[in-house]
């Protein structure tokens, strides 16, 4: 049966508002579209800036648990599309048996992916430069946003997106993701790369992505050794904030077509 529901998973430094264009486009195609926020992210961007307590308290297992409860309540398996950290969470959800197909856009890596390009270090350095940030919600300054998210946008559009979408990030989760490859046992972003029962997965990389460059997507995709379909599609000229970049409509349509064609 053709999936009739799409679940969109947002990344860090933003909220479900970052999916606003994709929600409308997919709804216009007749799909039921869900774009839940992380636990405590049920409020608007402005409220999270004013009181970032939900960001400080955020943990990856809580995020996964919330999405799994939502997915458990659906009548059939949906297409799951995640961006940035949401791409890593999409991989985890698929590994746990959820979804008919998944798409990871400019995805953060799951455990075991050790490729760390210089631009990624520069993008996250304002958070990782101090271990004290481990217990904080760390705001993103505009210059960092410009470099990490909107480096291909005109200046006025970049600033407008910063005002509309940006929120602080959980220093704890960012630090824990870095340390995951150096701690024994499975950590919060671990998946079974040999899971033959996982739904098909498409990685999408963007050539101008500074925070999750194409090398990260390529390495993450190569880690999968299962018989299940795992593919990688690359787009030239796009930044990390791909869901809002000019031409996003064609990408939204193409990844949806791929998911429908490969859905289990």
TrEMBL record:
Top-level division of the source organism's lineage: Bacteria
Molecular function terms, GO-annotated: hydrolase activity
Keyword Hydrolase: yes
Name recorded for this polypeptide: Alpha/beta fold hydrolase
One Pfam family, short name: Abhydrolase_6
Domain AB hydrolase-1, first and last residues per copy: 6-242
UniProt keyword list: Hydrolase
Record-linked InterPro entries: AB_hydrolase_1, AB_hydrolase_fold
Phylogenetic placement of the source organism: Bacteria, Bacillati, Actinomycetota, Actinomycetes, Streptosporangiales
Organism encoding this protein: Herbidospora solisilvae
């Amino acid at each position: 049966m053709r999936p009739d529901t799409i679940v969109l998973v947002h990344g860090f430094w933003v909220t479900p508002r970052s999916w606003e264009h994709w929600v409308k486009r997919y709804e216009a195609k007749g799909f039921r579209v869900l774009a839940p926020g992380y636990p405590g992210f049920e409020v608007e961007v402005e409220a999270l800036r004013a009181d970032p307590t939900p960001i400080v308290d955020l943990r990856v297992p809580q995020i996964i648990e919330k999405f799994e409860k939502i997915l458990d309540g659906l009548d059939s398996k949906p297409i799951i599309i995640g961006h940035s950290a949401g791409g890593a969470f999409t991989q985890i959800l698929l590994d746990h048996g959820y979804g008919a197909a998944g798409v990871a856009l400019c995805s953060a890596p799951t455990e075991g992916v050790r490729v760390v390009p210089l631009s990624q270090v520069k993008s996250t350095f304002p958070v990782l430069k101090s271990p004290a940030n481990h217990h904080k919600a760390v705001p993103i300054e505009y210059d960092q946003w410009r470099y990490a998210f909107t480096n291909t946008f005109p200046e006025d559009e970049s600033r407008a997106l910063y005002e509309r979408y940006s929120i602080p990030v959980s220093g704890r989760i960012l630090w824990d993701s870095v340390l995951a490859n150096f701690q024994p046992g499975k950590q919060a972003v671990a998946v079974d790369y040999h899971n033959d029962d996982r739904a098909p997965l498409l990685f999408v990389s963007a050539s101008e992505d500074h925070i999750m460059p194409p090398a990260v997507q390529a390495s993450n995709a190569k880690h999968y050794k299962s018989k299940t379909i795992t593919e990688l599609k690359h787009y030239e000229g796009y930044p990390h904030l791909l869901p809002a970049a000019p031409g996003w409509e064609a990408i939204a349509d193409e990844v949806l077509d791929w998911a429908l064609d490969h859905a289990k």
